[in-house]
Design goal:
This protein has 132 residues and is an alpha+beta fold. The chain has two helices and ten strands.
Length: 132
Amino acid sequence: MAEKLNFDLVSPERLLFSGQVDMVVIPGSEGDMGIMAGHAPVMSTLRPGIIEVENEGAPRQRIFVRGGFAEVTPAGLTVLAEFTVPLADLDATALDREIALADKDVADAKNDDKRQSALEKLDHLKELRHTV
């Protein structure tokens, strides 16, 4: 039996998931990353996207995150997410609200760096909207 990964998914409101899994795919700022037990330590910011939790014998869990941070240590993976919702619960209306918030962030950006970051977030949300 393969070694399991300790995985914690935390939002500002609560601990959403804590357990041992086979693999987690996270939407890192530089691209998607598959994390398994024994992965090298790494920290990454998260872009809006889908976290996929894989566990042998169980359906794949897919969770939308609006951003946050991920840390891989020898103890496991911890994701601190700004906002999360299971993909099964995500509907077009909710995603449209997220897009509107991101659009406002673009308009309110105080400098070019913040505007670029907000535009990237908006682009990712629009891509996700096409999948719903």
